[in-house]
Amino acid sequence: MRIAVVGGTGTLGRHVTLELTRRGHEARVLSRHSREYPVDLSSGQGLAGALAGCDAVIDASSSQRNARQVMVDGTARLLAAEQQAGVGHHVLISIVGCDEVSIGYYRAKVNQERAVERGPVPWTIVRATQFHELVNGWFTAASRFRMLPAAGMPLQLVAAAEVAPVLADAAERDPSGGRISVGGPEVSSVRDLARTWLSATGRPAVLVPVPLPGSTGRALRAGALTADHADVTGVITFADWLASESSERIFDSPG
After folding, report:
1. Per-residue pLDDT of the chain (255 residues; tens, 9 = 90+)
2. Domain presence at residue 255
3. CATH number of the structural domain spanning residue 44
4. Domain range for residue 100?
């Protein structure tokens, strides 16, 4: 199969590309930073040519700064280009609990899912819990100020490398018109994850309590971002993931 990976140079996209290649597929990397297939979801530039001849698309794109422009409006552009190119399956990566957490990026994810559901291309949505890589980035950034957030909310971290095969599986199958959930092997509070990170990295920092007010805080404290009955469960814990990373990567700046 010829499968386009939108956001294929990102944290998850790189793993997806490697997984597809390992399985013998032609993985076409689409992103603003791609040498062969540069595309811009915010304008639609490059999409038509990049999607020509593709059987499926895995959308692993992301934008914190321009979430709506890239993830919602950009998804509409992407789906229209897929329809024109004759793509038969759109696979989207989303977030477990995004419809329960009313903050900007998560709202954009919900609207992105809706765009896919209403769009012209048959689809499958894979929802994953938070990545080890994301939380490592939070802690790395915060540790520069010698402090780490110690919120009481539970997370169920999963490695991006364990989500990639789920996306590849979905792309190989017929569109389901439904959702597949992926979660990590254990549920831990941000406070405990911070302690694990400090132990693994040896960085000096103090834990700073972070209040979680309002209805969003209640949802987070209740475990909105965890998956009690995930369809797929990873095996790599945060401690294992940290141990497997080189010191150079652990101390890299996030993003």
Report:
1. 999 999 999 999 999 999 999 999 999 999 998 999 999 999 999 999 999 999 999 999 998 888 889 999 999 999 999 999 999 999 999 999 999 998 889 999 999 999 999 999 999 999 999 999 999 999 999 999 999 999 989 999 999 999 999 999 999 999 999 999 999 999 999 999 999 999 999 999 999 999 999 999 999 999 999 999 999 999 999 999 999 985 445 444 333
2. no
3. 3.40.50.720
4. 2-250
DSSP per position, 138-152: HHHHHHTTTEEE---
Model pTM? 0.93
Query: Which segments within the chain are labelled E, that is strand?
Result: 2-6, 26-30, 56-59, 89-95, 123-128, 147-149, 154-155, 179-183, 188-189, 206-208, 232-233
- The verdict on residue 57 lying in a domain is yes
> How many domains is the chain partitioned into structurally?
1
7 Rama class: left (phi>0) / alpha (psi -120 to 50) / beta:
left
